[in-house]
């Protein structure tokens, strides 16, 4: 994700418009990295996934969640 501003991803609260990207990213993370049901704290950090998808909305890297 070379063109994405890290500070914006970590510290903003963008509105979710790119639902397909978000669902793909959450599902992929849940299946391959960490069971999201195991720790409620992780659920509070899912805004980061929203921010990633919204930053990538017009990017050619929009399929990051695959």
From TrEMBL:
Signal peptide: none annotated. InterPro entries: Legum_prodom (IPR048501), Legumain_prodom_sf (IPR046427). Residues 14-59 form the Legumain prodomain domain. Transmembrane segments: none annotated. This is Legumain prodomain domain-containing protein.
């Amino acid at each position: 994700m070379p063109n994405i501003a890290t500070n914006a991803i970590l510290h903003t609260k963008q509105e979710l418009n790119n639902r397909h990207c978000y669902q793909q990213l959450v599902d992929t993370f849940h299946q391959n990295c960490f069971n999201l049901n195991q720790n409620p704290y992780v659920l509070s950090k899912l805004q980061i996934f929203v921010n990633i998808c919204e930053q990538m909305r017009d990017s050619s890297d929009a399929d990051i969640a695959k």
